[in-house]
Design goal:
- Helix 1 packs parallel to helix 7 and helix 7 packs across helix 8.
- The strands form six sheets. Strands 1, 2, 8, 9, 10, 13, 19 and 20 form an eight-stranded mixed sheet that branches. This protein has a seven-stranded mixed sheet with strand order 6-5-15-16-17-14-18. Strands 3-7-4 form a three-stranded antiparallel sheet, with no helix packed on it.
- It has 14 helices and 24 strands.
- It has a domain of about 220 residues: FAD/NAD(P)-binding domain (3-Layer(bba) Sandwich), CATH 3.50.50.60.
- It is an alpha+beta fold.
Protein backbone atom coordinates (compact mmCIF):
# COMPACT_ATOMS: atom_id res chain seq x y z
CA UNK A 1 0.00 0.00 0.00
CA UNK A 2 1.05 3.60 -0.57
CA UNK A 3 2.12 5.25 2.69
CA UNK A 4 1.75 8.97 3.18
CA UNK A 5 4.95 10.42 4.61
CA UNK A 6 5.87 13.76 6.03
CA UNK A 7 8.74 15.53 4.31
CA UNK A 8 11.30 17.96 5.70
CA UNK A 9 13.39 20.29 3.55
CA UNK A 10 17.05 21.12 4.15
CA UNK A 11 19.90 22.51 2.15
CA UNK A 12 22.07 19.54 3.14
CA UNK A 13 21.25 16.15 4.64
CA UNK A 14 24.11 14.08 6.03
CA UNK A 15 23.65 10.34 6.57
CA UNK A 16 25.78 9.26 9.52
CA UNK A 17 27.12 11.06 12.59
CA UNK A 18 30.65 9.68 12.45
CA UNK A 19 33.86 11.66 11.99
CA UNK A 20 33.26 12.57 8.34
CA UNK A 21 29.57 13.44 8.73
CA UNK A 22 30.10 15.61 11.79
CA UNK A 23 33.14 17.32 10.29
CA UNK A 24 31.03 18.12 7.22
CA UNK A 25 28.21 19.51 9.37
CA UNK A 26 30.59 21.72 11.36
CA UNK A 27 32.35 22.99 8.25
CA UNK A 28 29.05 23.81 6.56
CA UNK A 29 27.91 25.83 9.56
CA UNK A 30 31.29 27.57 9.78
CA UNK A 31 31.02 28.60 6.13
CA UNK A 32 27.44 29.75 6.67
CA UNK A 33 28.56 32.01 9.53
CA UNK A 34 31.51 33.35 7.53
CA UNK A 35 29.43 34.16 4.46
CA UNK A 36 26.18 35.22 6.11
CA UNK A 37 24.33 32.79 3.84
CA UNK A 38 22.48 30.38 6.09
CA UNK A 39 22.84 26.67 5.29
CA UNK A 40 20.35 24.33 6.93
CA UNK A 41 21.94 21.01 7.88
CA UNK A 42 20.38 17.78 9.19
CA UNK A 43 22.41 14.77 10.32
CA UNK A 44 20.78 11.34 10.63
CA UNK A 45 22.33 8.73 12.95
CA UNK A 46 21.09 5.14 13.21
CA UNK A 47 22.59 4.59 16.69
CA UNK A 48 20.73 5.39 19.88
CA UNK A 49 23.06 8.35 20.39
CA UNK A 50 25.98 9.94 18.60
CA UNK A 51 28.97 7.66 19.17
CA UNK A 52 26.93 4.55 20.05
CA UNK A 53 28.05 2.69 16.90
CA UNK A 54 31.56 4.15 16.60
CA UNK A 55 34.29 1.53 16.87
CA UNK A 56 37.83 2.48 15.97
CA UNK A 57 41.30 1.67 17.33
CA UNK A 58 42.07 4.50 17.83
CA UNK A 59 45.20 6.55 17.58
CA UNK A 60 44.03 9.86 16.15
CA UNK A 61 46.24 11.96 13.93
CA UNK A 62 44.91 15.48 14.63
CA UNK A 63 45.70 16.98 11.21
CA UNK A 64 42.08 17.47 10.12
CA UNK A 65 40.89 18.44 13.60
CA UNK A 66 43.57 21.13 13.74
CA UNK A 67 42.18 22.56 10.51
CA UNK A 68 38.53 22.26 11.51
CA UNK A 69 38.66 23.47 15.12
CA UNK A 70 42.13 24.91 15.85
CA UNK A 71 41.21 25.62 19.50
CA UNK A 72 39.91 22.11 20.15
CA UNK A 73 41.92 21.78 23.35
CA UNK A 74 40.34 24.91 24.84
CA UNK A 75 36.92 23.58 23.87
CA UNK A 76 37.42 20.34 25.79
CA UNK A 77 38.01 17.83 22.99
CA UNK A 78 38.62 14.41 24.59
CA UNK A 79 42.20 13.98 23.37
CA UNK A 80 43.71 13.23 26.75
CA UNK A 81 46.48 10.71 26.03
CA UNK A 82 49.22 11.91 23.67
CA UNK A 83 51.40 9.08 22.40
CA UNK A 84 54.51 8.91 24.59
CA UNK A 85 56.00 5.55 23.69
CA UNK A 86 55.52 3.01 20.91
CA UNK A 87 56.67 -0.44 20.00
CA UNK A 88 56.30 -2.79 17.04
CA UNK A 89 56.54 -6.52 17.76
CA UNK A 90 56.95 -9.47 15.43
CA UNK A 91 55.28 -12.39 17.17
CA UNK A 92 56.12 -16.05 17.12
CA UNK A 93 53.92 -18.49 19.00
CA UNK A 94 55.82 -18.02 22.27
CA UNK A 95 58.33 -15.26 21.62
CA UNK A 96 58.40 -11.72 20.27
CA UNK A 97 60.97 -9.55 18.52
CA UNK A 98 60.84 -5.78 18.94
CA UNK A 99 61.51 -3.92 15.69
CA UNK A 100 62.96 -0.40 16.19
CA UNK A 101 60.47 2.24 15.06
CA UNK A 102 63.30 4.03 13.24
CA UNK A 103 63.55 1.08 10.84
CA UNK A 104 59.86 1.27 9.90
CA UNK A 105 58.24 3.57 7.32
CA UNK A 106 57.48 7.03 8.68
CA UNK A 107 53.76 6.30 8.22
CA UNK A 108 54.03 3.99 11.23
CA UNK A 109 55.48 6.68 13.53
CA UNK A 110 52.82 7.98 15.94
CA UNK A 111 54.69 10.98 17.33
CA UNK A 112 52.19 13.84 17.78
CA UNK A 113 49.12 11.57 17.78
CA UNK A 114 46.62 10.76 20.55
CA UNK A 115 45.08 7.59 21.95
CA UNK A 116 41.36 8.34 21.94
CA UNK A 117 37.89 6.91 22.12
CA UNK A 118 36.50 7.90 18.73
CA UNK A 119 33.02 7.36 20.16
CA UNK A 120 33.73 10.11 22.69
CA UNK A 121 35.39 12.29 20.06
CA UNK A 122 32.24 11.99 17.94
CA UNK A 123 30.04 12.82 20.92
CA UNK A 124 32.10 15.98 21.38
CA UNK A 125 31.98 16.80 17.65
CA UNK A 126 28.22 16.36 17.78
CA UNK A 127 28.01 18.92 20.57
CA UNK A 128 30.06 21.37 18.51
CA UNK A 129 27.87 20.83 15.44
CA UNK A 130 24.63 21.34 17.37
CA UNK A 131 25.99 24.46 19.07
CA UNK A 132 26.63 25.87 15.59
CA UNK A 133 23.07 25.17 14.43
CA UNK A 134 23.20 21.75 12.78
CA UNK A 135 20.27 19.45 13.62
CA UNK A 136 21.24 15.92 14.66
CA UNK A 137 18.70 13.10 14.85
CA UNK A 138 20.00 9.97 16.62
CA UNK A 139 17.85 6.85 16.38
CA UNK A 140 16.76 7.71 12.83
CA UNK A 141 18.41 5.41 10.27
CA UNK A 142 18.26 6.36 6.62
CA UNK A 143 16.72 3.38 4.84
CA UNK A 144 16.86 4.33 1.18
CA UNK A 145 17.90 7.11 -1.18
CA UNK A 146 15.20 9.14 -2.90
CA UNK A 147 15.39 10.24 -6.54
CA UNK A 148 13.66 13.01 -8.46
CA UNK A 149 12.14 12.60 -11.91
CA UNK A 150 15.50 13.25 -13.57
CA UNK A 151 17.27 10.53 -11.58
CA UNK A 152 19.07 12.88 -9.20
CA UNK A 153 19.32 12.00 -5.51
CA UNK A 154 16.92 14.32 -3.71
CA UNK A 155 17.34 13.04 -0.15
CA UNK A 156 16.61 9.94 1.91
CA UNK A 157 13.77 8.17 3.66
CA UNK A 158 14.11 7.12 7.27
CA UNK A 159 13.07 3.66 8.35
CA UNK A 160 9.51 2.79 9.34
CA UNK A 161 8.88 1.92 13.00
CA UNK A 162 6.45 -0.73 14.21
CA UNK A 163 6.80 -3.26 11.39
CA UNK A 164 6.24 -6.89 12.38
CA UNK A 165 8.36 -9.89 11.43
CA UNK A 166 5.96 -10.52 8.56
CA UNK A 167 6.74 -7.02 7.21
CA UNK A 168 3.20 -5.89 8.02
CA UNK A 169 2.45 -2.77 10.10
CA UNK A 170 1.66 -3.35 13.78
CA UNK A 171 -0.60 -1.19 15.93
CA UNK A 172 2.49 0.82 16.89
CA UNK A 173 3.35 1.57 13.25
CA UNK A 174 4.91 4.95 12.50
CA UNK A 175 5.98 5.66 8.93
CA UNK A 176 9.44 6.97 8.25
CA UNK A 177 9.79 10.50 6.97
CA UNK A 178 11.43 11.90 3.88
CA UNK A 179 14.26 14.38 4.19
CA UNK A 180 14.75 16.36 1.00
CA UNK A 181 17.94 18.28 0.30
CA UNK A 182 19.76 20.15 -2.42
CA UNK A 183 22.71 17.85 -1.65
CA UNK A 184 22.91 14.64 0.38
CA UNK A 185 26.24 13.54 1.84
CA UNK A 186 26.61 9.84 2.62
CA UNK A 187 28.83 9.31 5.66
CA UNK A 188 27.61 5.84 6.62
CA UNK A 189 31.03 4.36 7.36
CA UNK A 190 32.52 1.21 5.90
CA UNK A 191 30.14 -0.69 3.58
CA UNK A 192 27.24 1.67 4.16
CA UNK A 193 24.11 0.01 2.83
CA UNK A 194 22.80 3.03 0.89
CA UNK A 195 26.30 3.97 -0.29
CA UNK A 196 26.69 0.43 -1.61
CA UNK A 197 23.48 0.76 -3.63
CA UNK A 198 24.46 4.19 -4.99
CA UNK A 199 27.88 2.89 -6.05
CA UNK A 200 26.11 0.20 -8.06
CA UNK A 201 23.32 2.49 -9.33
CA UNK A 202 25.65 5.18 -10.67
CA UNK A 203 28.54 2.87 -11.61
CA UNK A 204 30.88 4.76 -9.30
CA UNK A 205 33.38 1.90 -9.16
CA UNK A 206 33.66 1.43 -12.93
CA UNK A 207 37.15 2.94 -13.01
CA UNK A 208 38.34 1.76 -9.58
CA UNK A 209 39.61 -1.49 -8.09
CA UNK A 210 37.30 -3.59 -5.93
CA UNK A 211 37.26 -2.44 -2.33
CA UNK A 212 38.98 -4.83 0.06
CA UNK A 213 38.27 -5.01 3.78
CA UNK A 214 39.39 -6.20 7.17
CA UNK A 215 37.38 -7.13 10.23
CA UNK A 216 38.59 -5.34 13.34
CA UNK A 217 37.79 -6.80 16.76
CA UNK A 218 38.39 -4.75 19.88
CA UNK A 219 38.11 -4.91 23.66
CA UNK A 220 38.39 -2.26 26.35
CA UNK A 221 40.18 -3.39 29.51
CA UNK A 222 40.88 -1.92 32.92
CA UNK A 223 44.33 -3.19 33.85
CA UNK A 224 46.55 -3.28 36.93
CA UNK A 225 47.74 0.33 37.51
CA UNK A 226 51.28 -0.98 37.92
CA UNK A 227 51.18 -2.16 34.27
CA UNK A 228 49.56 0.95 32.85
CA UNK A 229 51.51 3.61 31.01
CA UNK A 230 49.28 6.27 29.47
CA UNK A 231 50.12 7.01 25.85
CA UNK A 232 51.88 3.70 25.13
CA UNK A 233 51.14 2.25 21.68
CA UNK A 234 51.96 -1.28 20.52
CA UNK A 235 51.38 -2.91 17.15
CA UNK A 236 52.16 -6.51 16.23
CA UNK A 237 52.37 -8.70 13.14
CA UNK A 238 52.94 -12.42 12.74
CA UNK A 239 51.36 -15.04 15.01
CA UNK A 240 48.61 -16.20 15.06
CA UNK A 241 48.23 -15.49 11.32
CA UNK A 242 49.96 -17.67 8.75
CA UNK A 243 52.17 -16.04 6.12
CA UNK A 244 49.37 -15.90 3.54
CA UNK A 245 46.76 -14.23 5.72
CA UNK A 246 46.72 -10.51 6.45
CA UNK A 247 46.45 -9.70 10.11
CA UNK A 248 47.87 -7.69 12.97
CA UNK A 249 47.08 -6.21 16.34
CA UNK A 250 47.09 -3.07 18.44
CA UNK A 251 47.33 -2.39 22.13
CA UNK A 252 46.83 1.23 23.24
CA UNK A 253 47.04 2.68 26.77
CA UNK A 254 44.53 5.50 27.22
CA UNK A 255 43.78 7.31 30.49
CA UNK A 256 42.38 5.91 33.78
CA UNK A 257 44.27 2.58 33.70
CA UNK A 258 42.42 1.56 30.56
CA UNK A 259 43.79 -0.27 27.53
CA UNK A 260 42.37 -0.97 24.10
CA UNK A 261 43.40 -4.32 22.64
CA UNK A 262 42.35 -5.37 19.18
CA UNK A 263 43.02 -7.55 16.17
CA UNK A 264 42.42 -7.05 12.44
CA UNK A 265 42.03 -9.92 9.96
CA UNK A 266 41.97 -9.20 6.22
CA UNK A 267 38.69 -10.39 4.73
CA UNK A 268 40.49 -11.71 1.67
CA UNK A 269 41.50 -14.78 3.70
CA UNK A 270 41.25 -18.12 1.91
CA UNK A 271 40.52 -20.71 4.60
CA UNK A 272 36.77 -20.95 5.33
CA UNK A 273 37.58 -22.63 8.66
CA UNK A 274 39.22 -19.43 9.94
CA UNK A 275 37.34 -17.71 12.78
CA UNK A 276 38.44 -14.07 13.30
CA UNK A 277 36.92 -13.87 16.79
CA UNK A 278 38.79 -16.96 17.94
CA UNK A 279 42.01 -15.72 16.33
CA UNK A 280 41.64 -12.56 18.42
CA UNK A 281 41.09 -14.53 21.59
CA UNK A 282 44.08 -16.75 20.79
CA UNK A 283 46.26 -13.71 20.12
CA UNK A 284 45.67 -12.44 23.66
CA UNK A 285 47.20 -15.63 25.09
CA UNK A 286 50.63 -14.70 23.70
CA UNK A 287 52.98 -14.15 26.67
CA UNK A 288 53.73 -10.54 25.67
CA UNK A 289 50.02 -9.64 25.59
CA UNK A 290 48.88 -11.85 28.47
CA UNK A 291 51.41 -10.14 30.75
CA UNK A 292 49.67 -6.78 30.18
CA UNK A 293 46.08 -8.02 30.54
CA UNK A 294 46.36 -10.60 33.31
CA UNK A 295 44.94 -9.28 36.57
CA UNK A 296 42.76 -6.81 34.67
CA UNK A 297 39.06 -6.72 33.81
CA UNK A 298 37.42 -6.72 30.40
CA UNK A 299 34.87 -3.90 30.12
CA UNK A 300 33.59 -3.90 26.54
CA UNK A 301 33.83 -5.79 23.26
CA UNK A 302 32.97 -4.85 19.69
CA UNK A 303 33.79 -5.42 16.03
CA UNK A 304 33.58 -3.44 12.79
CA UNK A 305 34.69 -3.90 9.20
CA UNK A 306 37.20 -1.40 7.82
CA UNK A 307 38.22 -0.40 4.30
CA UNK A 308 41.70 -1.49 3.23
CA UNK A 309 41.65 -0.92 -0.54
CA UNK A 310 43.24 2.52 -0.39
CA UNK A 311 44.03 4.79 -3.31
CA UNK A 312 43.16 2.46 -6.18
CA UNK A 313 39.84 1.45 -4.60
CA UNK A 314 38.41 4.94 -4.07
CA UNK A 315 35.33 5.15 -6.32
CA UNK A 316 33.98 8.20 -8.10
CA UNK A 317 32.95 10.41 -5.20
CA UNK A 318 30.23 12.64 -6.63
CA UNK A 319 26.97 11.83 -8.39
CA UNK A 320 23.85 13.82 -9.21
CA UNK A 321 22.52 15.22 -5.94
CA UNK A 322 25.13 13.91 -3.55
CA UNK A 323 28.52 12.45 -2.75
CA UNK A 324 30.37 9.88 -0.67
CA UNK A 325 32.55 11.02 2.24
CA UNK A 326 34.70 9.23 4.80
CA UNK A 327 34.63 5.46 4.95
CA UNK A 328 31.58 5.30 2.69
CA UNK A 329 34.18 5.81 -0.04
CA UNK A 330 37.19 4.27 1.75
CA UNK A 331 40.03 6.63 2.67
CA UNK A 332 41.82 4.54 5.31
CA UNK A 333 45.62 4.79 5.17
CA UNK A 334 46.60 1.15 5.69
CA UNK A 335 50.24 1.48 6.83
CA UNK A 336 49.18 4.20 9.26
CA UNK A 337 46.21 2.05 10.35
CA UNK A 338 44.25 5.31 10.44
CA UNK A 339 41.20 6.63 8.65
CA UNK A 340 39.60 9.11 11.04
CA UNK A 341 41.73 12.07 9.98
CA UNK A 342 41.16 11.37 6.29
CA UNK A 343 37.44 10.82 6.88
CA UNK A 344 37.15 14.19 8.60
CA UNK A 345 39.08 15.96 5.87
CA UNK A 346 36.93 14.54 3.06
CA UNK A 347 33.83 15.64 4.96
CA UNK A 348 35.31 19.13 5.13
CA UNK A 349 36.20 19.12 1.43
CA UNK A 350 32.68 18.07 0.47
CA UNK A 351 31.22 20.77 2.74
CA UNK A 352 33.31 23.43 1.01
CA UNK A 353 32.17 22.23 -2.41
CA UNK A 354 28.53 22.23 -1.28
CA UNK A 355 28.79 25.72 0.21
CA UNK A 356 30.25 27.04 -3.05
CA UNK A 357 27.54 25.34 -5.08
CA UNK A 358 24.73 26.73 -2.92
CA UNK A 359 25.82 30.28 -3.68
CA UNK A 360 25.07 29.64 -7.36
CA UNK A 361 21.34 29.27 -6.84
CA UNK A 362 19.55 27.83 -9.86
CA UNK A 363 22.91 27.49 -11.65
CA UNK A 364 24.27 25.12 -8.98
CA UNK A 365 25.68 21.91 -10.48
CA UNK A 366 23.84 18.69 -9.76
CA UNK A 367 27.11 16.75 -9.57
CA UNK A 368 29.80 18.20 -7.33
CA UNK A 369 32.79 17.60 -9.58
CA UNK A 370 34.51 20.31 -7.55
CA UNK A 371 34.61 17.88 -4.61
CA UNK A 372 36.49 15.40 -6.78
CA UNK A 373 38.99 18.14 -7.68
CA UNK A 374 39.43 19.20 -4.06
CA UNK A 375 40.14 15.60 -3.09
CA UNK A 376 42.73 15.16 -5.85
CA UNK A 377 44.50 18.34 -4.69
CA UNK A 378 44.42 17.46 -0.99
CA UNK A 379 46.83 15.81 1.41
CA UNK A 380 44.35 12.90 1.66
CA UNK A 381 45.00 12.04 -1.98
CA UNK A 382 48.77 12.40 -1.52
CA UNK A 383 48.76 10.15 1.57
CA UNK A 384 46.80 7.39 -0.12
CA UNK A 385 48.81 7.55 -3.33
CA UNK A 386 52.08 7.20 -1.39
CA UNK A 387 50.71 4.16 0.49
CA UNK A 388 48.95 2.60 -2.50
CA UNK A 389 51.14 -0.51 -2.84
CA UNK A 390 51.26 -1.48 0.85
CA UNK A 391 48.15 -3.65 1.12
CA UNK A 392 48.10 -5.23 -2.36
CA UNK A 393 51.79 -6.22 -1.94
CA UNK A 394 50.85 -8.47 0.98
CA UNK A 395 47.99 -10.00 -1.00
CA UNK A 396 50.18 -10.59 -4.05
CA UNK A 397 53.44 -11.76 -2.45
CA UNK A 398 52.42 -12.94 1.04
CA UNK A 399 53.11 -11.28 4.37
CA UNK A 400 56.90 -11.74 4.40
CA UNK A 401 57.83 -10.76 0.83
CA UNK A 402 54.97 -8.26 0.70
CA UNK A 403 56.26 -6.52 3.82
CA UNK A 404 59.77 -6.32 2.36
CA UNK A 405 58.35 -4.90 -0.88
CA UNK A 406 56.21 -2.34 0.96
CA UNK A 407 59.10 -1.42 3.24
CA UNK A 408 61.34 -0.70 0.26
CA UNK A 409 58.59 1.32 -1.41
CA UNK A 410 57.69 3.44 1.64
CA UNK A 411 60.92 3.63 3.62
CA UNK A 412 63.42 4.02 0.81
CA UNK A 413 61.47 5.33 -2.19
CA UNK A 414 58.78 7.28 -0.27
CA UNK A 415 56.02 5.62 -2.30
CA UNK A 416 57.43 6.76 -5.63
CA UNK A 417 57.57 3.44 -7.45
CA UNK A 418 56.43 4.14 -11.03
CA UNK A 419 53.68 1.53 -10.94
CA UNK A 420 50.62 0.68 -8.90
CA UNK A 421 49.71 -2.80 -7.73
CA UNK A 422 46.03 -3.63 -8.01
CA UNK A 423 43.48 -5.62 -6.04
CA UNK A 424 42.66 -8.49 -8.36
CA UNK A 425 39.36 -9.58 -6.84
CA UNK A 426 36.75 -8.82 -4.21
CA UNK A 427 37.06 -10.42 -0.77
CA UNK A 428 34.07 -12.71 -1.24
CA UNK A 429 35.85 -14.38 -4.17
CA UNK A 430 38.90 -15.49 -2.17
CA UNK A 431 37.62 -18.52 -0.23
CA UNK A 432 38.77 -22.00 -1.20
CA UNK A 433 36.60 -25.10 -0.71
CA UNK A 434 36.56 -26.33 2.88
CA UNK A 435 37.81 -29.79 1.96
CA UNK A 436 40.96 -28.26 0.40
CA UNK A 437 41.90 -26.21 3.47
CA UNK A 438 43.16 -27.33 6.89
CA UNK A 439 40.79 -27.21 9.82
CA UNK A 440 41.91 -24.98 12.67
CA UNK A 441 41.88 -26.20 16.26
CA UNK A 442 41.26 -23.26 18.58
CA UNK A 443 42.04 -23.45 22.32
CA UNK A 444 39.17 -23.19 24.75
CA UNK A 445 38.85 -19.75 26.34
CA UNK A 446 40.46 -19.54 29.75
CA UNK A 447 38.14 -16.88 31.18
CA UNK A 448 41.18 -14.82 32.17
CA UNK A 449 42.40 -13.21 28.93
CA UNK A 450 40.35 -15.19 26.37
CA UNK A 451 36.57 -15.55 26.35
CA UNK A 452 33.61 -17.16 24.64
CA UNK A 453 31.48 -15.40 22.07
CA UNK A 454 28.24 -15.13 24.07
CA UNK A 455 29.85 -13.32 27.00
CA UNK A 456 31.58 -11.04 24.52
CA UNK A 457 28.41 -10.09 22.65
CA UNK A 458 26.81 -9.30 26.02
CA UNK A 459 29.47 -6.61 26.49
CA UNK A 460 28.43 -4.83 23.27
CA UNK A 461 25.18 -3.70 24.96
CA UNK A 462 23.36 -4.65 21.77
CA UNK A 463 19.59 -4.35 21.58
CA UNK A 464 17.10 -4.78 18.76
CA UNK A 465 13.32 -4.82 18.96
CA UNK A 466 12.70 -8.55 18.59
CA UNK A 467 9.40 -8.38 16.68
CA UNK A 468 10.81 -6.39 13.77
CA UNK A 469 11.74 -8.02 10.45
CA UNK A 470 15.15 -9.66 10.19
CA UNK A 471 17.40 -6.94 8.79
CA UNK A 472 19.92 -9.46 7.41
CA UNK A 473 18.05 -10.35 4.26
CA UNK A 474 18.79 -13.24 1.91
CA UNK A 475 18.37 -12.84 -1.83
CA UNK A 476 18.00 -16.63 -2.18
CA UNK A 477 17.19 -18.67 0.94
CA UNK A 478 18.51 -21.89 -0.61
CA UNK A 479 22.11 -20.69 -1.04
CA UNK A 480 23.32 -21.00 2.60
CA UNK A 481 22.67 -24.76 2.62
CA UNK A 482 22.81 -25.79 -1.03
CA UNK A 483 25.98 -23.85 -1.85
CA UNK A 484 27.75 -22.32 1.16
CA UNK A 485 27.42 -25.30 3.51
CA UNK A 486 28.31 -27.87 0.88
CA UNK A 487 31.29 -26.00 -0.52
CA UNK A 488 32.59 -23.89 2.38
CA UNK A 489 30.99 -25.42 5.50
CA UNK A 490 28.95 -22.17 5.65
CA UNK A 491 31.65 -19.66 6.73
CA UNK A 492 29.05 -17.21 8.09
CA UNK A 493 28.94 -19.25 11.29
CA UNK A 494 32.62 -18.35 11.81
CA UNK A 495 33.28 -14.96 10.19
CA UNK A 496 30.44 -13.24 12.05
CA UNK A 497 31.91 -11.80 15.28
CA UNK A 498 28.55 -11.81 17.07
CA UNK A 499 27.08 -15.29 16.57
CA UNK A 500 24.33 -14.09 14.24
CA UNK A 501 24.52 -17.07 11.88
CA UNK A 502 24.10 -20.68 13.03
CA UNK A 503 23.62 -23.97 11.23
CA UNK A 504 21.02 -25.91 13.22
CA UNK A 505 19.98 -29.51 12.64
CA UNK A 506 17.45 -32.01 13.89
CA UNK A 507 18.44 -34.25 16.81
CA UNK A 508 19.71 -36.92 14.43
CA UNK A 509 21.96 -34.42 12.62
CA UNK A 510 19.78 -34.19 9.54
CA UNK A 511 17.94 -31.29 7.92
CA UNK A 512 20.57 -28.53 8.25
CA UNK A 513 19.24 -24.99 8.04
CA UNK A 514 20.52 -21.48 8.61
CA UNK A 515 19.28 -19.70 11.72
CA UNK A 516 19.78 -15.92 11.78
CA UNK A 517 19.98 -14.46 15.29
CA UNK A 518 19.45 -10.90 14.10
CA UNK A 519 19.12 -9.58 17.65
CA UNK A 520 22.86 -10.24 18.11
CA UNK A 521 23.93 -8.11 15.14
CA UNK A 522 26.53 -5.46 16.00
CA UNK A 523 26.37 -3.81 12.55
CA UNK A 524 29.94 -4.77 11.59
CA UNK A 525 28.94 -5.51 7.93
CA UNK A 526 31.26 -8.53 7.63
CA UNK A 527 28.48 -10.77 6.32
CA UNK A 528 27.53 -8.28 3.62
CA UNK A 529 31.18 -8.30 2.51
CA UNK A 530 32.35 -11.91 2.88
CA UNK A 531 29.35 -14.04 1.88
CA UNK A 532 30.69 -16.09 -1.08
CA UNK A 533 27.61 -15.57 -3.26
CA UNK A 534 26.88 -12.02 -2.07
CA UNK A 535 23.54 -13.40 -0.96
CA UNK A 536 23.30 -11.47 2.32
CA UNK A 537 22.02 -7.92 2.03
CA UNK A 538 22.23 -5.80 5.19
CA UNK A 539 19.51 -3.19 5.68
CA UNK A 540 19.04 -0.84 8.60
CA UNK A 541 16.96 -2.18 11.51
CA UNK A 542 14.62 0.02 13.53
CA UNK A 543 16.19 3.21 14.81
CA UNK A 544 18.33 2.99 17.91
CA UNK A 545 19.02 -0.72 17.43
CA UNK A 546 22.44 -2.30 17.51
CA UNK A 547 25.38 -1.90 19.86
CA UNK A 548 25.80 0.83 22.44
CA UNK A 549 29.53 1.20 22.85
CA UNK A 550 30.79 3.18 25.85
CA UNK A 551 34.26 4.75 25.58
CA UNK A 552 35.12 2.72 22.45
Amino acid sequence: MEIERDAMEYDVVIVGAGPSGLAAAIRLRQLAEESGNDISVAVLEKGSEVGAHILSGAVLEPTALNELIPDWADKGAPLNAPVTDEKFLMLGEERSLSVPIALLPREMDNHGNYVVSMGNVCRWLGEQAEAMGAEIYPGFPAQEALFDDDGNVKGVRTGDMGIGRDWQPKDSFEPGIELHAKYTLFAEGCRGHISKQLIEHFGLRDNADPQTYGIGLKELWEIDPAKHKQGTVWHTAGWPMDTKTWGGSFLYHLEDNQVYVGYVVGLDYQNPHLNPFKEFQRFKTHPAIREVLEGGRRVCYGARALNEGGYQSVPQLAFPGGCLIGCSAGFLNVPKIKGNHTAMKTGMLAAESVADALTQGEQAPKTLTDYESRYRNSWVHDELKTARNFRPAAAKFGMVLGSLYAGLDLKVLRGKLPWTLHHGHADHESLKPAEQMPKIEYPKPDGIVSFDLNSSVYLTNTYHEEEQPVHLTLKDESIPIEHNLKRYDEPAQRYCPAGVYEIVRDDDGSNPRLQINAQNCIHCKTCDIKDPKQNIHWIAPEGGGGPNYPNM
